[in-house]
Amino acid sequence: MKKFLVIGNPIEHSLSPKLQNYWIKNNDLNAIYGKLETLETDLPELCNNLKKGELDGLNVTIPFKKTIIPFLDILSGNSLRTQSVNTISVENGNLIGHNTDIDGFELSIRKLNFDITNKKILVLGAGGVVPSIIYALMKMKTSKIYITNRTKEKAENLKNLFKDLEVIDWGILPDFDVIINATSLGLNKSDKFEIDFNKAGQNKLFYDVIYDPFNTEFSETGSKPHNMLENGLNMFLFQAQKAFEIWHNINPEINDDVISFIKDKKNEIK
Length: 270
Prior knowledge:
Blueprint: E1 2-8, H1 16-26, E2 31-37, H2 43-52, E3 57-60, E4 74-75, H3 77-82, E5 87-91, E6 94-98, H4 101-111, E7 120-124, H5 130-139, E8 144-148, H6 152-157, E9 166-167, E10 178-181, E11 205-208, H7 217-222, E12 228-231, H8 233-248, H9 256-268
Parallel strand pairs: 1-2, 1-3, 4-6, 7-8, 7-10, 8-9, 10-11, 11-12
Antiparallel strand pairs: 3-5, 5-6
């Protein structure tokens, strides 16, 4: 039986095992997918287990998308460009790092039928998934990308990967068409953005990478009739679909049954 894991810290609320095992069952595969709360000191052993065939693949989430890289043999082009890995496969004894977050974000935008070409984007946050989002935005030919983070230095560091980014101070709202919350704000009811989103104007797309956020100033403004609000559920589904295809050479279906299944499981862990 093939064995797969998602690793991260924290990891208890991850829906990846539910989704991956759903697809494994539906495709009659002899495999199992679990989750493991991990410390950075565990990464060498996990990669060694992949080499030995005790594991067949990993998903990697916060905070290890960058720190896992030194233990890998090969990076895909997207992983190399973003210095971010969320999926690991094994081929001929080599550990290969992939970045399916890029596919996940891009496909989620395309599903909205929202033309992001030549749009001005404001990204909130500078954490693990942000390089993937920025790279996807560049692929979709946006005209301008602003980035802001509570720790400004982290946002500045991303200019090493993407020189055309414009870093702005936290709390400032420039003229934008799309605003993306890629911070952890919204995971807890008490979270405060300290940004007045009502000053953003109208006809904006508010995109929250969190796929099960509490109601926040961000989502409340985005849900107003003159704006558009999207959460990260479709991004989660599409990145997982691409990882499944990498491991099993099968493109699993994302349909209403899958979406209903995940929403039900999401409610179970609240």
